[in-house]
Amino acid sequence: MTLKMLAVDTATENCSVALCIGDQMMVRSDIAPREHTNKILPMVDEVLAEAGVSLTQLDALAFGRGPGSFTGVRIGIGIAQGLAFGADLPVLGVSTLAAMAEQAHRTHGATQVLTAIDARMGELYFAQYERQENGDWHALADEAVVAPDALCLESTDGTWALAGTGWPAYPELAKGLDLTTTESGVLYPQAQDMLAIAKYAYQRGEAVAAELATPTYLRDKVTWKKLPGRE
Fold this sequence. Notes:
Elements: E1 4-9, E2 14-21, E3 24-31, H1 36-51, E4 60-66, H2 70-87, E5 91-95, H3 96-108, E6 112-118, E7 124-131, E8 137-139, E9 144-146, E10 159-163, H4 166-169, E11 180-183, H5 191-203, H6 220-226
Parallel strand pairs: 1-4, 4-5, 6-10, 10-11
Antiparallel strand pairs: 1-2, 2-3, 6-7, 7-8, 7-9
């Protein structure tokens, strides 16, 4: 069976869409802060037209579940749910951090990756990944939002590729880590790398109904406390 899957992501400054039909890949991507709502659906239309398929012919829809911008994550999950409801498709949420690890492998062959997104407020969204023999990724610890000086690594063996906006935001951070690092050039997640990860999740039977799609904010408790009347 030829797997047909669409992925959308608006969780960071980058807005991207990708469609796979078996090994064939159609991709659109644009770094466009605050323009995601205007760009994402035309991108979806473009890749579907390029492949000559409709949404209803797909098997599933993947989306960037975060972490990232609160607004960006909400836009992405809303678009994914709307498309999935209309076409009666199951959905798969993919970590933006894991997607950057996959991109570091796709572009540089990295198999050990430290992913960090600048979360503002003096913090990072962080995760540490190792590539498995089957091509899937294993997180050595749960994704976390942490202060740069509180970064905790589970392993320091081998060479670790750095991916994400967190590293240029804190240029001295990598120098203080007791491990060997290399630059990957990866700053933002891409939908095409989410597809690579979503394929494994789909094969494991992890796709869910659109109404069950959930975001990953990591900092949601902080947001809750900021609401009037909340403590």
